[in-house]
Design brief:
This protein is of the alpha/beta class. Helices cover about 45% and strands about 20% of the residues. A hairpin with a 2-residue loop joins strand 5 and strand 6. Helix 1 crosses helix 7 and helix 5 packs antiparallel against helix 6.
Length: about 200
C-alpha cells in the first residue's frame, strides 16, 4: 500500500520568518512540495506570480470560495489569502509531502478539514525582536506594526492547538528543527503500519 503524503502546516505571527524558513527548508528537502497561496493583495517588489503567490482580484477569489476550490481562506489586514485545494490533495494522494505556510486563521480551518496534518508554530525569540523584524523590513506604517503585534499576541494564545513549536532565533537552527520534525513524522509507525507488517511478514 502506497504511503499517503503528509501535509506540514507552518504558522506563526507576521514577521516571524515563516517564508524564509520554508524557502531554506526546500533547499535541503527539495522532494517536498510547496503549496502556493492565492491572494488579492498587490504584488510586492521581487515577488513572482505562481512562485510567491497567485495574485488574483477579489471577484476571482470570491468565485473560488463559491466553487469550493480552497482548502482554507482568510482575510488578513484587508486582503484575502487562500490555499487552492486541487494541487495539495492531488500531491498528498500521490504520496508526496507538502508544506504550507499560512496564518493562524487558515491553520485552524485546515485543522478542522484535514486533522491528519502536522501543525508547526514558529515563534520569535521575544516580542521585542518581532517588533524589530517588522520595523526593519520597512513595509508597514506605525499603525500596521501595532496591529501586527496585537495579532501576534492573540495568535500565541492558540499555540496549544499545534503539534510542535520552533523558536526562530537562528535561521539554520530553525530549519534543522523543521527537518527533524519532518523526519520524525515520516518514521511514525501509524503512517506505514500496513506496509511494515506486509513487508516483514513476507520475509518469514
Amino acid at each position: 500500500m502506497k504511503r499517503k503524503g503528509t501535509l506540514f502546516v507552518v504558522c506563526g505571527p507576521s514577521g516571524v520568518g515563516k517564508g524564509t524558513v520554508c524557502k531554506e527548508l526546500l533547499k535541503v528537502k527539495p522532494e517536498i512540495g510547496l503549496s502556493i497561496s492565492a491572494t488579492t493583495r498587490e504584488r510586492r517588489k521581487g515577488e513572482t506570480e505562481g512562485v510567491s503567490y497567485y495574485f488574483i482580484d477579489r471577484n476571482e477569489f470570491e468565485d473560488m470560495i463559491e466553487s469550493d476550490e480552497l482548502l482554507e481562506y482568510a482575510e488578513v489586514y484587508g486582503n484575502l489569502y487562500g490555499t487552492p485545494k486541487k494541487y495539495v490533495l492531488e500531491q498528498l494522494n500521490k504520496g508526496y509531502d507538502i508544506i504550507l505556510e499560512i496564518d493562524t486563521q487558515g491553520a485552524m480551518q485546515i485543522k478542522e478539514k484535514y486533522p491528519k496534518g502536522v501543525f508547526v508554530f514558529l515563534l520569535p525569540p521575544s516580542m521585542e525582536e518581532l517588533r524589530n523584524r517588522i520595523v526593519t523590513r520597512g513595509r508597514d506604517s506605525k499603525d500596521n506594526i501595532e496591529k501586527r503585534l496585537k495579532c501576534a499576541n492573540e495568535e500565541i494564545d492558540f499555540i496549544s492547538e499545534y503539534d510542535y513549536y520552533i523558536i526562530n532565533d537562528d535561521l539554520t537552527g530553525a530549519v534543522n528543527s523543521l527537518v527533524s520534525i519532518i523526519e520524525a513524522e515520516r518514521c511514525k509507525v501509524k503512517n506505514d503500519i500496513c506496509k511494515l507488517i506486509k513487508m516483514y511478514k513476507e520475509e518469514i
